Amino acid sequence: MDHIYMKKALELSLLGEGRVNPNPMVGAVVVKDDKIIGTGYHKEYGGPHAEVFALDEAGDKAQGATLYVTLEPCSHYGKTPPCAKKIVEMGIKKCVVSCLDPNPLVAGTGVKYLEDNGIEVITGIMEKDGIEINKIFFKYITKKIPYLFLKCAITLDGKIATSNGSSKWITNEISRERVQAIRNKYSGIMIGINTLLADNPSLTARIENGRDPYRIVVDPYLKINLESKFTNFSDKKSIVITSKDNLENNPEKIKTLIDKNIILVYLENYQFKISDILIELGKLSIDSVLLEGGGYLISQAFKENIIDEGEIFIAPKILGDEKAISFVKGFSIENIADGIQLENIRINTYGDNVSFSFSS
Amino acid sequence: MDHIYMKKALELSLLGEGRVNPNPMVGAVVVKDDKIIGTGYHKEYGGPHAEVFALDEAGDKAQGATLYVTLEPCSHYGKTPPCAKKIVEMGIKKCVVSCLDPNPLVAGTGVKYLEDNGIEVITGIMEKDGIEINKIFFKYITKKIPYLFLKCAITLDGKIATSNGSSKWITNEISRERVQAIRNKYSGIMIGINTLLADNPSLTARIENGRDPYRIVVDPYLKINLESKFTNFSDKKSIVITSKDNLENNPEKIKTLIDKNIILVYLENYQFKISDILIELGKLSIDSVLLEGGGYLISQAFKENIIDEGEIFIAPKILGDEKAISFVKGFSIENIADGIQLENIRINTYGDNVSFSFSS
Questions:
Q1: Which residues of B are marked as active site?
Q2: What is the ipTM of this complex?
Q3: Pairwise CB contact (< 8 Å): A156 & B312
Q4: Theoretical Cys-Cys bridge with A28: which of A69, A217, A258, A354, CB 3.0 to 4.6 Å?
Q5: pLDDT tens digits, residue range A259-313?
Q6: Annotated catalytic residue: which of A17, A44, A51, A292?
Q7: Secondary structure, 3-state, chain B
Q8: Would you call A349 and B345 a contact, using CB atoms and an 8 Å cutoff?
Q9: Nearest Cβ partner of A302 from B320, B330, B341?
């Protein structure tokens, strides 16, 4: 039965997707006499934990019940009081945990607290699923580097735009709908300056009740257009990554951007490494970045072999134009076996479009 | 019930795939008192027609029975005596036909002969399927131009080989198995001279009981290597398409090729149109051509908008090398909407490979 209740808890956890970052998604179920008497999930960053909702719903009946929770209950005072303490106070008899919390502040201390207080603890139930669901959290909490997801839409000949930047639309509506769902999962969406200048994108998650991610543009030479949509949000969620040299070379534009509530991140020189960009974004509590283009950043990400996961959408369209923009370039491959081989492939179809999902 | 028996006849017809060209695939079923008393299909080019096998199996019982046949019975003396005559002689009462024969030598005269002899004829049962199965025959018999099928295997960035021609293997084994089945369907396999020089391919259909197709190389400057596999088959099924100028410029090589049982086809100048190539191949009774590459011929076929059908296999591999060989090039596209849009898409998966099937 453990698997059935844990599966329910894992499903509940997913309801917090895109709303709890950089916290983990967590689901909890309280069971007594083979009946679910309380459920909960972590709904939003800084809000009560899953266990609290589930235990409160169970109320007095929690006495002697079993708690299923997808991640080790916390034992420290963070934004909220420790769950482990509440679990003991509510009289839970047994606690079934999917995976331990890699957060150095928890890391086994939650389980220890429960056991020290006489609660039977079982860990590792559907552990793989528990870790998979929180792969963003697991990476960020241990490395402080955002999880990097690549999304791109290409033609059959691997182009992301024509030579003059026309890219609307390569993929069909069903694919683009799917992209909106992807955008809802990540804390930030990152593009290169050329993509911004060509497309003037909104970079919002256009799904019902979706929350907007951070918008991030990599713009070494500060070419950004002050009339672009990007520079005219008032939510302090637009980030420009630019060369430190612009502080000296272009102080007025920087001042204007700051006045427009744009967050500026400075890096040395002009050829940025994605790994350096991610370190800086991690410092801003951004736990995950969706890289959407263009060709330069995507190529750079492949060169640094730094992509955690991705989905490449393909439309049955051909440009056949050597001047069109390739989604990856700059490699020199002599033998076909030396090409970049994507791993852990899953194939998805969206009408007449197809996508390869992959992960490192 | 008509559909059930016609479906059976259509299934039977497919058993002749790749063996009857340039004749049509035909299946036939004789039914009496709701029982199948005879079945047949056209087994090989020049051999007895489907109706003959089915009627002979039914024997005397054919008297008063119904014949289901996927294509209008012939009424003329060709390689075999007319089936319509035999149908009358055997005492068939009713004849159900999927589609009329577009062959100008038949074209309704078969049905007329049957009706004139008191047989009830119903046509158009599962007609779409009947035409679909024989699309090669329908094109060739009316236009004398071979049906053109494109097959290619590309990386995610649309490359068919590295800059130095390395292409083994882009796709996985399951995809390559599927290619062997495709090769079995078409009368000829066509490649460009560069592909031949780079790969030295066998161009055989490596499936059990498969028959070998014509091997066709487009070689305007007669660069062919006399040690290649291509020039060393003794079956008179290797065709070199070259410039007429070589008769004068390279008479010795031409003589050697002729001595090696190679068929030579001459075209004017050096920039051949695929349409001209197909006309010449049609004259050799080749009803269908599988175009396998390379980039030049594929691009040319797209430019001439002459591809009847195709399947493009994609592997989750990226070369990212601008010098690698693109599967289509030479177009100049400003607006994404002006790209080549493949139509009638079907998506197929082969393990971690995917393919787009399309048709004009």
A1: 51
A2: 0.89
A3: yes
A4: A69
A5: 999 999 999 999 999 999 999 999 999 999 999 989 999 999 999 999 999 999 9
A6: A51
A7: CHHHHHHHHHHHHHHHCCCCCCCCCCEEEEEECCEEEEEEECCCCCCCCHHHHHHHHHHHHHCCCEEEEEECCCCCCCCCCCHHHHHHHCCCCEEEEEECCCCCCCCCHHHHHHHHCCCEEEECCCHHHHHHHCHHHHHHHHHCCCEEEEEEEECCCCEEECCCCCCCCCCCHHHHHHHHHHHCCCCEEEEEHHHHHHHCCCCCCCCCCCCCCEEEEECCCCCCCCCCCHHHCCCCCEEEEEECCHHHHCHHHHHHHHHCCCEEEEECCCCCCHHHHHHHHHHCCCCEEEEEECHHHHHHHHHCCCCCEEEEEECCEECCCCCCEECCCCCCCCCHHHCEECCCCEEEEECCEEEEEEEC
A8: no
A9: B320
